[in-house]
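Reviewer comment 2.1 asked that we show a complete input and output for one of the modelled complexes. We chose the zinc ion case, as it is the one discussed in the main text.
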Amino acid sequence: MKVLVIFSGGLDSSVCLAKAIKEYGKKNVIALSFDYGQKNSKELLKAKELCKYYNVEQICMNIKELFKYSSSSMLKSSNVELPKISYQEQLKNNIKEVSTNIAFRNGILLSIATSIAISKKIDKIYYGIHNEGIATTLYPDCCENFNLAMNLAIYIGSGNKVKVEAPLVNMLKAEVIKLRIELDVPFEKTWTCYENKKKPCQRCTACRDRIEGFKKNNLIDPLLK
Ligand SMILES: [Zn+2]
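Response of the prediction step:
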């Protein structure tokens, strides 16, 4: 069994990578990272470091061109500012769409991963979406139904060869962080912040979500120590 892990260098996909290595052994795991023009390109450096740490093969792919029509605040090409409030606050403000969403990003990343998996005879794809109860409304391509539909499409479209798994899909951020003890993930080597500073900004939506997850586990994020 070989596994391809869609790997951003963030906390969730790092847990997925560690899980795949634990289950199938590092020789059977390949990490797939994308430069899609994200502002937080620091995560790509972290992704590289983590692949070295785990001694797993990494494929890096540049797909900036794909999102050139998107105005998502996540992209370098966008002049929309990144939000500085939590998801909960955004929902309270009745926001129907978040500026950090990138149109069908997970659908695209999974499709590319499937083509690579078929060519390299890889049986399974892992990706780190998780549903905090907010994903379905704010990130439509992060929910369980999306995962089920993509899994079916990919299984059929690959000639019954490739399956997709989202091992964290029903977990809360705090539960993902809890897995760290079992999987021994070096969270100090991961990067979640939307900015590229030396330390996490602690203000952006991604930082707030991460800090909250550590707090619920009575832990301090090692990046903030
Ligand atoms: Zn931040």
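The longest strand covers residues 29-35. We note this here for comparison with the apo prediction described in Section 3.2.
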